[in-house]
Amino acid sequence: MVFSSLLFCTIFLPLCLLLYYGIPKICGGGIDNKIQISNYILLAFSLVFYGFGGIKYLLLIAVVILINWGCGFLCKVGRHGISVRKLGLILATACDLGLLFFFKYFNLFIATIENLFFADGLTEAERASGIFSGVGTGALGLEQIVLPVGISFFTFQALSYVIDVFNDDAELQDNLGYFALYISCFPQLIAGPIVHYKDIATQLSDRKVGSYEFAEGIKRFCFGLSKKVLIANTLAAVADKVWATNLSNLDATTAWLGAICYTFQIYYDFSGYSDMAIGLGKMFGFDFKENFNHPYRAESIKEFWRRWHISLSTWFRDYVYIPMGGSRCSISHTCLNIFMVFLLTGIWHGANWTFLVWGVVYGILLIIERLWFGKILEKNPVKFVNRLLIFIIVTLLWVVFRAENIMDAGVFISRMFIGGFKPLNLINYLSGLSVIALVCAPVMAGFIQDHMSVKAVKGNAFVCLALLMLSMLFLVNGTYNPFIYYQF
Predict the structure, then answer these.
(1) Does the annotation count 349 as an active-site position?
(2) How far is CA 467 from CA 156, 226, 470, in A?
């Protein structure tokens, strides 16, 4: 089930809200009793929501919840000695990262083994192609492992809880139901934002939703839904059509069209999901932090990563970069820390060489910025040039991110520069609707924020209602298009 579906918008969410607010009022009692009832109702709906991705995976999330909840007791400061606390931290880390690596990288590992040791009859070139494409020979006869939806997000949330308890940065949660709700709360379960336990610990047991907050949640949800349905899905049709052609025959004009459409598609897709998650959170009394801040306005790669997928960047900063020494050590050590963080960022995104290269290149670019190029960008008085340069770099790297394998990425990027200028070919890919979406995409991605108040647009109930009705119309007439980050 996805937020941008008729089932969710017309049945699941209204029913959840009705029971969430209605049953506690019927049961009565004090505020603590009402919070407890509402928590268990929300937990039940969250598990149903996750169950749509596969009933068998409910066991997986239950295992993650139980192990990390138990490890929290082992890690609590003052409850046990340092050796027991370290044991709890090691167990939680091994569980969370072990599950993540198994489900994400088992298929790539087996494919690599098959191409290296069980590829009799294949040439060296064919073996290399198999390794870099992640396609095995099937010699071992092992079935492909299906990636459970949202595993990258809820394992990171669980691990952050244990680490914070170990460091005495968060209080121990002794209520299993409340901890289960923190891990599985459906607004942010599948694709974030990654919520730190310490940020919502008090909200699990003490929250209140007024009419203003609820209305703001509805508006934010409508705004996010329109970003996904009206812009992301429309541009996705163009990008998919470009990528479905023979990449070797692409002209430069079409290649740039496909790259730019995907660049805006992934932004509106993911930021739209985050908007909906934050809006849903407000409806239920939770305050989730922002996950995007107009990243395509960035004037440096460093600034881009401060604006893009903020919750993931914050997670790696707090739990990897700073513990490794951050920027408080020598310049060489700092550069190593930066490189390791973005190597892990690439690995986190999936078992494909494209993600690894994508993360490594960002790490190298950030090191270059830190050493000398960042000063050039800072001194440049024409900031538009900075923004354009960063946008082009980000677009090229999204090609690597989008490609099925690293070879396709190389071919696609080469066609962007040597494919020839053939603007008439765009007629084969663009419709009137996609042209409108392509015009609106850069305008609403942060480039007009210097000249107008977007909050005024978001806050207008009439505009939000119009966006909701238009989005619902598109959902009725459109085709299924899942969120990009559901695959992670």
Answers:
(1) yes
(2) 33, 6, 5
